[in-house]
Amino acid sequence: MTKIVGLTGGIGSGKTTVAHMFKALGVPVFNSDDEAKVLMNSSVIIKQEIIELLGENSYKDDTLNKPYIASQIFNTKAVLKQINAIVHPKVAAAFDTWVSKQNAPYVIKEVAILFETRTDSLVDFIITVIAPLETRIQRVMERDQKSREAVELIIDNQLSDSEKIKKSHYVIENNNRLITEKKVLEIHTKILDAMHKS
Ligand code: ATP
After folding, report:
1. Residue pair 58/50 in contact by the 8 Å Cβ criterion
2. Bridge-partner residues for 59, per DSSP?
3. CATH number of 1-28+105-193
4. Is the CB of 11 under 6 A from ligand 1?
5. How does 166-191 read in b/e, with b if 16+ C-beta sit within 10 Å?
6. What's the pLDDT tens digit per position in 133-150?
């Protein structure tokens, strides 16, 4: 049976960067955040539920109105949780379908909110990517042209690194790319070894 490895970490820690490194080793990768973005535009049910929650302004020309949604999340903390509750079950179903089609010893499920959605119990191993807070803020401000406040708000809604580390099998400190690559290879070997032993 294909094992599932959850790859998590706070915003800007470098999950996607690390996921690409696993992909280069031949490991299939599912990006939950990308899937969520796709589904928010393509799923009629999600669209209906988001409009029920936040009103008709949530979509513009049939496309998710991101600035409006972001402003709603910014104003009311609970909104993010409510959106996650709408989108998450559909992403989980898409993942199940995807994983059933994979033919590999293990797959990577990249998900920023693995613990927050209480889906950590559904994976066989957990890898958490960490980086210093200020580095993460700078990376995201640069990548997404977001304000410091907007990045900090997202960080405030995520579990702290120390809590994530406690619950993880492996931790990757992602500062220097070459060191990260080495660590990825080391973990890849360890996971395959652990699977052979079990
Ligand atoms: P999000 O939670 O927003 O999806 P993430 O954890 O997937 O973020 P990445 O998108 O991989 O993070 O990285 C954030 C930004 O930091 C990207 O622009 C990426 O190119 C850059 N980055 C990632 N790792 C490093 C590194 N080791 N050195 C320098 N820049 C990096």
Report:
1. yes
2. 64
3. 3.40.50.300
4. yes
5. eebbbbbebeeeeebeebbeebbeeb
6. 999 999 999 999 999 998
**Residue found under tokens 């820690």:** 13
CA 134 – ligand 1 centroid, Å: 13
- How much is the pLDDT for 196? 83
HSE-CB of 178 using CA atoms within 13 angstroms: 0
Residue 153 has pLDDT above 90, yes or no: no
Mutate to test the pocket of ligand 1, among 7, 13, 15, 17 (most ligand atoms within 8 A of CB): 17
Q: What topology is assigned to 33-101 in CATH?
A: Rossmann fold (3.40.50)
Question: Would you list the domain boundaries of the chain?
Answer: 1-28+105-193, 33-101
| Ligand 1 centroid – CA 144 distance (Å) | 11
